[in-house]
Design a protein that fits this description.
The structure is a homodimer of 121-residue chains. Chain A is elongated. The first copy, chain A, has 121 residues and is mainly alpha-helical. Chain A contains 4 helices and 3 strands. In chain A, a hairpin with a 7-residue loop joins strand 2 and strand 3. Chains A and B meet through helix 1 and helix 4 of A and helix 1 and helix 4 of B. The structure holds a DNA duplex (30 and 30 nucleotides).
Chain lengths: 121, 121
DNA sequence: GGCTCTTATATGATATAAGCATATATATAA
DNA sequence: TTATATATATGCTTATATCATATAAGAGCC
């Protein structure tokens, strides 16, 4: 059993997809930039330790029509594939927020119960 | 891409392990009972839709020494494999709480940023 | 020019986990 | 005797995560 919050298995794939959708909705970005913006959230996310996974997740988002892409060659250096949110992506995110709120409640319940357990000892 | 909070991919495996450790720490239980106690948390958890996955996760917890088991044949009906937390399990849970608190902060940040995005539109 | 570093995207191979079906078995209720 | 609830467990297939590697542009250095 591996640890938590140390880059392996901290979240599930679905959550990473939501994080990416939010980041892209805030501002269109390319994959490499998204990896650094993800780190700013402060909790390690699975499949992101290695860039390969991130690109694969972005591909699935693109294939399912939640994001669209443009190649940006204006900056010099290697070409950048810039992801932007679609209407479908925004409404998917909106629908998914229900689960995010539920998760928050859930985590709070978890903490509450853990602390009750601690007191009991 | 499948949905969230509908039994598929809502959490990661590592979180399920934590939930199970907390439940078992609160009260020793057998697998079948744990599946119903998990549902009481209100958010669907991956690998738990089907009982098979739950038993496999419990096996890994047992193999790694975080829980110990006893067979209970006192109640009638099929024998029950009762899981109880070990010292190692408790200290693992304690260490992991750091990640749980971080997740809470993280989710709050997510919600905050989503709501800021909504206002901007 | 050749060397290394950072930025940037992507795929191959393998290990782990999730999801679905199924097997086994005891007791109770209809 | 048939069905239902309880109870544990494994086989198989697909999906995901992890690790390694390939490709390539530009920048800085010597």
């Amino acid at each position: 059993m591996r640890g938590f919050g140390r880059g392996t298995g901290a979240f599930g794939r679905r959550w990473v997809e939501l994080y990416l959708l939010l980041l892209i909705a805030e501002k269109p970005s390319h994959g490499y930039e998204l990896s650094t913006r993800l780190k700013d959230f402060g909790v390690m996310i699975p499949g992101i330790g290695q860039m390969g996974s991130l690109y694969r997740i972005l591909s699935t988002l693109e294939m399912s029509g939640l994001v669209a892409t443009d190649w940006d060659i204006s900056e010099g250096g290697p070409a950048r594939k810039v992801y932007k949110i679609t209407k479908e992506g925004l409404s998917f995110l909106e629908d998914a927020m229900e689960s995010v709120y539920a998760l928050k409640t859930n985590i709070e319940k978890f903490i509450e119960r853990y602390e009750a357990l601690k007191k009991r000892e």
